[in-house]
Structure formats: structure tokens, C-alpha cells
Amino acid sequence: MARSKVLFAKARLERLEKEASLTYRFRKLLEESSLKNIITSGNLVAIKLHVGDMEHGGYRIIRPIFVKILVDYVKKLGGIPFLTDTWGLRHVVVGLENGYNYATVGAPLIPVSGIKETDLVKIRVPNPLRIPEIDVGSTVFNADVLINFSHSKGHPSPGYGGAIKNIAMGCTGPNTRSAIHNLEKEDTIGRAFQEGMVDAVHATILNKPNKVFHINYVMDVQPTCDCAPWSDIPIVPDIGILASEDIVALEKATIDLINQAPIVPWSIGELAGLKPGDNKFLVIHGKDPYIQVEAGYRKGLGNLEYELVEV
Amino acid sequence: MSSAGYKVSVDHNKCIGCAQCYAACPNKVFVIENKKAVPRYQEKCVGCRACVTRCPSGAITLTPRDVYSFFAKFYSKQ
After folding, report:
1. B70 and A117: CB-CB below 8 Å?
2. What angle is formed at CA A188 by the lines to CA A173 and CA B4, rounded to 5 degrees?
3. Is residue B77 very low, low, confident or very high in pLDDT (cuts 50, 70, 90)?
4. ipTM of this model?
5. What's the CATH number where B43 sits?
6. How close does chain B come to A65, measured CA to CA in Å?
7. 3-state secondary structure of A41
8. In this structure, is residue B40 part of a structural domain?
9. B27 and A178 in contact by Cβ < 8 A?
10. Is the dihedral angle over the CA atoms A31, A36, A106, A96 positive or is it negative?
11. Which residue from A81, A231, B20, B26 has the highest number of Cβ atoms inside 10 Å of its Cβ?
């Protein structure tokens, strides 16, 4: 199998000009991506992101300017973009307060599954690893295109949360999230949990062949999830933004880059004695994040071999 | 957050006893006593937030209990 292409816009400013800055590089990444083949005029384009925790304790979330850049590009392609996240209308209010609103990014923000998370579509998972049936939010189910815009960071349950987790826990209903979390009791390394997440991803993208695109925002890579009511110093320096149609290759490339990176002083990465090359989230959370990557590969959702293409 | 990692609180000044949390919770955390929701079995809570989403009076709060998490050793207990 040929290696999957993973586009990479680096955060490091190499020249003192706007074109070298990440905002401009992100635009270039989108222009060089396959989105132009995925979105056709009139498509309703769901942009799934995590809009923040319910109590405004966390603040290391995707900066709204990057969402606006994506929204503008979707409009340029003729798509009708909207932002979406789970946890019902209360969470939408949080997202609006965090800067994801029409005035700032140019797209509406609507719940994944209705105002009280009851608008769900049951999808049978082909060859399930752990969960045979998944509740997918009707907003995502009915969208013509799904752009999975995730924030890469640590998470206590799978070790790492990025593109796979953004769909698995963020595009599904409470019963599915509960079923996945209950799998944590099966082992200590996070295998069952991560395999459950991959089943949820499989179900969610099933009705969208060649209509899903994944982006990992590998900035503010903090130890825990955007759902927690706190933020901490990132464990590695800002890396940039990666994107691919191949969710497995994208996640593998992202975790590899995080693991290769140096440690940020004063972070818990330093406290844990981490070094470049360590499987960092395995040390911090005791869960091996590569399990979800390998499970995705086994399910045929993507390729473990990738080519990192800098824009 | 990790399994069994949430403390479930119900503000009984706000709770109207509608039992929507009882009906929504996949893990049967709640019982209804004296027309109020009580998170009797909160050790079963995995943080799916169905109760918070459905509650019509904003009475329910989930708080992560980091003592159950592997990474808590990197943080102060006080």
C-alpha cells in the first residue's frame, strides 16, 4: 500500500514575513489539500471541533482565527459550513462565549445531536472490535461533508486525544460515550477504550465515503483534554497543524511528532522526566496512544505508513 | 476523564424532581427520593453528561475526581 499523504504546516516561524506564519501556512495547507475534491457546491459541511469545557476553567482550545480560515475556505469552495459539538445547547452557549460564533468565524454553531442530545441515528458497526452499535448525532449524520478539526492533546483514558477521539466522543450520543468509558474497566493500558473509540469512528464515517477530512491542531499540547475544567502548560512546544484524508496516518504522524519533540520547562513533562523520543502520553497517563492508531489500521480505516509533506 | 472519575452534585434548591436525569443516565447513577434527584450510585458515573444536558433547571454538576487518574501524581492534593 502506498504511503498516505499527511500535510504539515509548521508553527515555527522561519522567516519574518506573514506568509511564513501559521495562519498563512494553514491557508496554504487547505489549498494544497484534497478538500477541493471533497466539497462540491451546495454541500452542507460540518466542522466538528471541541468548543471547551462547561465551566470555563480550560482555555487551551483551538484559536478561533484558525476556525475562521477554515470556514472561509469552505465557503470559497461553494460549501455551506457550520460548526458543531456535542453535549447539547448548553455547550453551544459555552462555544459562543469562547469565540466560536458567527461574528468571529462566520459560521453558525449547532449541537451534534439536538438541544438535549436526543437526536441520534443508530448505526451498526461493521466487524466491531468492541461495540456493535453506535448512536451518531443526526447533525453529523445528515451533513454532506465532515471536517474533523481536532485539538491534539493528552487524555487520561486513551493517553492521547486527537482526530479519532474528536469523532468517537464528539459526534456520538451519551449512551455511546458511556459504553466506551465503561470499557476502561477491561484493562489498564487503555486497549478496550481505544478500540471502542475506533468502532465509533467507523460508524460515524460510514455514510460519507470520500467526504471526510481530518485536521489535527497540534498546538497547546496540554496533558489533559479540552473537556476538563482546567488547563496546564503544554508538555511540548507548539508543533503546527497536520491534515489528511487518512485518519490513521494523521494520528500516527501527530503522535510521532509529539514524541520526537523536546519537553517544555515547568510542564509536567519535565516533572515526569520525559525526554525527546519517549512515548510521552504512555508515561503521563499509563495508556499507550498507539493502540487507537493500530486499531484503526486493523479496521481498514487507514494506513500506518505516511509521507509528511510540509507546506 | 477516566472511569469512575466524576463526583456528581445535585443542587436541591434547583432540582424539581422531574427525573429526567434518572431516565437519561445509562449507568443508573440516580435515584429519586422525596421528589429530588440523589446521585446514590455516583461511583458508576463515567462522565457522559446525559444528566447535565437533559436537566431543565441546571441543577447537576460533574467534577473530575483526579485521585482516580494515573496522572494525578503530578499534581498537589491540596
Report:
1. no
2. 50
3. confident
4. 0.86
5. 3.30.70.20
6. 28
7. coil
8. yes
9. yes
10. negative
11. A81
